[in-house]
Sequence to fold (609 residues):
Amino acid sequence: MFRIRRIFDDVVPANIHALEQVRAMLRSQFELLDRKKIDRIPESLRMPFKHGFRSILYVAEDHRAKVRGLALLDYDADLNFCYLDYIASDKKLEGRGVGGALYSRVRSEALALGVVGLFFEGLPDDPELCHDQELLQQNRARLKFYEAYGARPIINTAYEMPVHPESDNPPYLVFDDLGQNSVLGSSYLKNVIACILDRKYKDVCSREYVQMVLDSVHDDPVQMRPPRYFVPKNSRKKSVAVTASLTRIALVVTDQHEIHHVKERGYVEAPVRIRSIRHALELTGIFDPVLPIRFNDSWITCVHAADYVNYFRRICKNAEPNTPIYPYVFPIRNRARPPVELPIRAGYYCIDTFTPINGHAHTAARRAVDCALTGAHELLSGRRIAYALVRPPGHHAERGFFGGFCYFNNAAIAANYLSQFGKVALLDIDYHHGNGQQDIFYNRKDVLTISIHGNPRFAYPYFTGFADEKGEEDGVGYNINYPLPETIDISDYLKSLRSALGHIRDFGATYLVVCFGLDTSKGDPTGTWKFISGDFTTIGCQIGSLHKPCLVVQEGGYNNRSIGTNAKSFFYGLLSGVSGQQTGKKVKAGSGKKVKADSGKKVKAGSDR
Fold:
């Protein structure tokens, strides 16, 4: 088994380790490749536009973080195309699907960028160009593999003309239109070829050689080689496997939340919350359902104290499913000696009197953690946005305490998981202060915690969330609170939000985790603000404009008449902010319309000229 992960930089140890393996694999499999090109891959990730292209690196890793394959994709925004620079897999795993999975991921990434298509070089399957019979068979196998996806060599050009006449095995220029029926214009192709040869081979190709290749492009539209390995009606059979999944939002819904149902008057954290939101999202077409993955308990104890985790598991195991236990005795003087009886000890681990424990609380909370971690896993795989629609919520759960309907801090656990692979910003937009993540990350500088909330002078949890709480030790300056008045309008809120987003940009976060509270909406029984559907669209769009891989974790929100509509509006805004499109416009990559790509014009796949 392996997972595919996108690497953004060479800063954190996990990425450094992966890049060392990437370079070793390239050196072993591409013996003639310039070592300088291999060694500058980390630099191209840190400074993505230094070498002209924006570089995107994917690795296939096994459970021991051993790199089993890699794909390096280059993106040119001006000409709106992608170039597959390298794709390689562990030779020991040949036939195990690593190469196919990586190529499918690269195609999805290219579709998500809205490009005309994907170009790459493929070694020739013509015996006149490749005289080594063993190598010829390998070349044929590769081109057959790509043709199954609809990718074929461009013909009637001199691209495969060797730079040195005595050279053998010169590459074709291969084009994959990603199932979009793209039509290439001759002038556009000339620009693409000039771009590739100048940036990839400027030390090899003379000006005269480049001009010779460009002058050889006459066909308009550009011609592709007829299918050689599949009959025409089946030559694109794998194109349907490519989806624009990276452009849709991964939706991970907890499947064990309904067992945690406290049927008491006034207990607003009820299963209907999830049903209301899910029903509103089902018909939007912007979500991609993803099943939760089971993660190890160690990710919980990385964030929560072991004694609390053990206590919570034990008492839920011994408690009746439908008989909630509420804390009513709290330690003031002697926290060093917790009471022996577990029900009495509830006050030892709880911060309020309205968060009960019952026989199902641990099961439901544990599954919510799995959902949040699954969403984080989707980001590592290259997804732009993931949404963990969970209950019970988590942002009030501190390292060793539960409260505010929260038992495990889902967002903090996911943020800690992501912090292995890059800096994380955790933005809490619930009406109530995110005291849990503040407590958990208060001494750390690798996770920036920001909370925009009602002032704790009048809003739960009352004792944390003030502006002067800025972190301790290494974490000084990495905890930021925006306590706001009891009555505000959206313009007041947006001032704080824009300031928060500025801090996130300055921090240089690789990943963003959003604690998504809908209790800021009009009519919510736990809040005093009056945000409506359009306000949530604006908030989502502002957050999306950060263009960071974003995990949204559900927190509060208890007005079930509007919770679904407001959630839907937020995600429309978030998606439009990430894509840079105007809110309300639905654009599907690969809609099947023909597109002619010509010089100097940015043409998105599936659009009309």
Q: What stands out?
A: DSSP finds 17 helices and 17 strands in the chain. Residues 582-595, 599-609 have pLDDT under 50 and may be disordered. The chain has two domains: 3-241, 248-292+363-579. The CA atoms of residues 473 and 506 lie 20 Å apart.
